[in-house]
Design a protein that fits this description.
The radius of gyration is 26 Å and the shape is globular. α17 (515-540) packs antiparallel against α18. It is 53% helix and 10% strand. The longest helix is centred in the last third of the chain and has 30 residues, at 476-505. By secondary structure, the chain is α+β, with helices and mostly antiparallel strands. Residues 8-31, 631-642 and 644-656 have low confidence and may be disordered. Among the domains are: 151-300, Butyryl-CoA Dehydrogenase, subunit A, domain 2 (Beta Barrel), CATH 2.40.110.10; 303-461 and 474-602, Butyryl-CoA Dehydrogenase, subunit A, domain 3, CATH 1.20.140. A hairpin with a 2-residue loop joins β5 and β6 (221-234). Strands 1, 2, 3, 5, 6, 7 and 10 form a seven-stranded mixed β-sheet that branches. The chain contains 26 helices and 14 strands. The protein has helices spanning 5-10, 34-43, 49-57, 71-89, 93-98, 100-111, 115-135, 143-151, 293-300, 302-330, 349-377, 384-412, 424-436, 441-454, 476-505, 507-513, 515-540, 544-562, 566-571, 577-581, 583-595, 598-603, 609-612, 620-623, 637-642, 651-655; strands at 155-159, 175-179, 184-188, 196-197, 208-218, 221-234, 237-238, 242-246, 258-262, 265-268, 278-280, 286-288, 334-335, 343-344. The two termini are 17 Å apart.
Length: 656
């Protein structure tokens, strides 16, 4: 994929490689410009050398868009891309696990190219290797396994979810029975319900090492759920006792998902990932410094929490790319006007509003991601429940808003958005996977609501606030106070309703009756957190033009959220009818102001169009000229790649 001079300018913050050509293009943004400041708000940091190198490697031909491939070929290509990336970047799990920013960058940038590749990377590095490193105690038996995974001689997989239990992983029935005579475990799937559902274990010819969650049983005692390292398959085939049934295809998401089960598979004692907190002595007696089975389970699933961050990073980047392409397209595509002359479609307010509101929301998702990342780095200062809840709300908020944003972009670019070449439809499919992965959004919303109502490391915001700021829609303080008051009102109302309901109808029926409003509480809590993040980011913006834009984006995001429950605010006496009537006109006015700065806003996304290689990315009227040079069908593409010499590197990689 060719790197243009314009892309070199876009990537000027990368710190090397592409950045070395800064100044080649006229109209270069000066350091400290408004676009630079906006980009810093969106990204939270300047890009480092790792990301610079990553972007360069992703320009290699192996990552170029492909069509006319069967699902099995797409899957094979994703694995080949994975190994190529590891080799060219020299990826080391120690760096990725110790430096979350690199792990997040890997997810964000690869997500733009191949959603299947991103999924493989997150399973391999975060879930599989991450679990072995954090819970394997650094024992010698893990070293050769980690070496296999590090070199990708074997690909890591993670097997937790079961066919009958879905998100209720704690109810799993897979069992690892301790055999005192052999001092090992017998891993077994006792029934059809306990089959592991949809791990990527199906592709033939690819060696797989799995972290398998199973219920440990010692002398008939249920000791809780633990992870075990299990060899699933070699390059020659499935290992003894492992059964795999491939699942059907998923549109534009070619992972080798399968139903997997175990028939009396022997697992060495050293492959039990007990984090050094649980042990079985020479007499076959289990003991643990962690007394609660529930806490042991949460420790077993620890890397799933980090996975929420990884997936959120991908969502933010997908939105940024889609919005940048949409703005590029809308700035070129002309249509009729009442004046009799053609105008750009972006000139119409009906086009501007959904796009700029999506931009305001994307900044909110980016700031929420930065907040969640900070929570993880503050581990020890913030409580574990607060951190896990922050990660859950980040993943729920980002993934749900990603789907909304991508849907808007797909519609805004019309028929162009239906083609895979323009990426957006593929991103939309990918984002639906994020909603379900690492905990289904609906379940996380319900769990969060329960914690908020029980006050688990949580106090309702602004408990003594009485909307003390002047009630005006131009005030970010007033809008933020409205959000906080709405959250507090919901908490107090639900606590009262649940308390009286328990006496009348019992615990389950009382909770069930209030469930819809409880989910609304979680959504309100997430939006309030995002608005808090906006406020902190605004305080740090010193460049005048950028500060004005961020404040407008913040108010636009706040107003679109407040509009959802404006009627309730009026009923509760928190918002006057007169002020509520001004919300829609104010949203229109802010959008009109933001439109004047569209070039600054578009420039802040900083996604190289050469990386996306999408026809609508730049000059879409002439981009389709490339089709005359494309041979069809392209079924030989993967076979061509198989014959690439292992030593082949891209020009940019060789020069780095």
């Amino acid at each position: 994929m060719k790197i243009t001079s314009a892309d070199r300018l876009v990537c000027a913050d990368l710190g090397g490689g592409l950045a070395s050509t800064r100044g080649e293009t006229e109209g270069e943004l000066a350091p400290g410009s408004a676009s630079d400041a906006l980009s810093l708000v969106l990204r939270g940091r300047k890009l480092d050398l790792f990301e610079s190198r990553l972007v360069e490697v992703l320009h290699h031909d192996i990552f170029r868009p492909t069509e006319d491939l069967r699902a099995s070929e797409r899957c094979a290509l994703a694995y080949r891309r994975m190994r190529y990336l590891q080799k060219e970047l020299g990826l080391r799990s120690a760096d990725l696990l110790a430096n979350p920013q690199h792990l997040l960058a890997l997810h964000g940038w690869t997500g733009l190219i191949d959603g299947t590749l991103t999924t493989l990377l997150t399973i391999h590095y975060n879930l599989c290797i991450g679990s072995i490193v954090t819970q394997g105690e650094g024992r010698a038996a893990m070293e050769p396994l980690l070496a296999e995974l590090e070199s990708m001689q074997s690909i890591g997989v993670f097997l937790a979810t079961e066919l009958a239990h879905g998100n209720n992983v704690q109810a799993m029935e897979s069992e690892a029975v301790y055999d005192p005579a052999e001092r090992n475990f017998v891993l077994h799937t006792p029934n059809a319900r306990a089959q592991k559902f949809m791990p990527n274990t199906g592709a033939p010819g690819i060696a797989k090492l799995g972290v398998v969650l199973a219920r440990l049983k010692v002398a008939g005692r249920d000791c809780g759920v633990f992870p075990f390292v299990v060899r699933i398959r070699t390059a020659d085939g499935l290992c003894e006792g492992v059964r795999v049934t491939l699942l059907g295809e998923k549109p534009d998401y070619a992972l080798d998902n399968a139903v997997t089960s175990f028939d009396q598979v022997r697992v060495p004692y050293e492959h039990w990932l007990s984090a050094g907190e649980s042990r079985i002595d020479e007499h076959g007696v289990f003991s643990s410094t962690v007394k609660s089975r529930g806490v042991r389970f949460l420790k077993s699933m620890d890397r799933v929490q980090t996975g929420k961050l990884c997936l959120s990073s991908c969502g933010v980047t997908l939105c940024s790319a889609a919005l940048q392409m949409t703005l590029n397209y809308a700035s070129q595509r002309k249509t009729f006007s009442p004046m009799g002359r053609d105008v750009y479609v972006l000139s119409y307010r009906s086009y501007q509003r959904p796009v700029f509101e999506a931009i305001a929301t994307t900044y909110a998702t980016a700031l929420m991601l930065q907040h969640a990342e900070l929570l993880c780095r503050r581990n020890g200062e913030a409580g574990e429940s607060e951190i896990n809840r922050g990660l859950a709300m980040c993943k729920v908020f980002v993934s749900s808003r990603t789907i909304e944003t991508l849907s808007r972009c797909r519609e805004r670019v019309g028929a162009q958005g239906m083609f895979s070449a323009n990426r957006i439809i593929s991103y939309l499919v990918q984002s639906h996977g994020v909603v379900t992965a690492e905990g289904d959004n609906e379940i996380l919303l319900i769990k969060t609501a329960r914690e908020l109502l029980l006050g688990v490391e949580y106090t309702p915001p602004s408990a003594d606030a009485q909307l003390s700021t002047v009630p005006m829609l131009e005030s970010v303080d007033f809008l933020l106070e409205l959000m906080r008051t709405r959250e507090r009102t919901l908490v107090l109302r639900l606590r009262s309703a649940l308390a009286s309901g328990r006496k009348r109808a019992g615990v389950f029926d009382s909770w069930n009756e209030q469930l819809s409003e409880a989910v609304e509480l979680s959504w309100t809590h997430a939006a309030r957190l995002a608005l808090d993040c906006y406020g902190r980011a605004l305080d740090e913006v010193t460049e005048p033009s950028a500060r004005v834009i961020v404040e407008r984006l913040m108010r636009l995001f706040a107003l679109q959220e407040i509009a959802k429950f404006a009627t309730s605010l009026i009923v509760d006496g928190l918002l006057s009818r007169e002020l509520a009537a001004k919300i829609e006109p104010e949203r229109e006015r802010i959008v009109g102001e933001l439109y004047k700065d569209v070039e600054l806003i578009k420039g802040a996304f900083r996604i190289p169009m050469s990386l996306l290689a999408a026809p609508i990315g730049e000059d879409y009227l002439h981009a389709y000229d490339f089709l005359k040079d494309v041979t069809s069908p392209a079924e030989s593409y993967v076979r061509e790649l198989e014959h690439l010499p292992d030593s082949e590197t891209s020009d940019v990689a060789a020069s780095a």
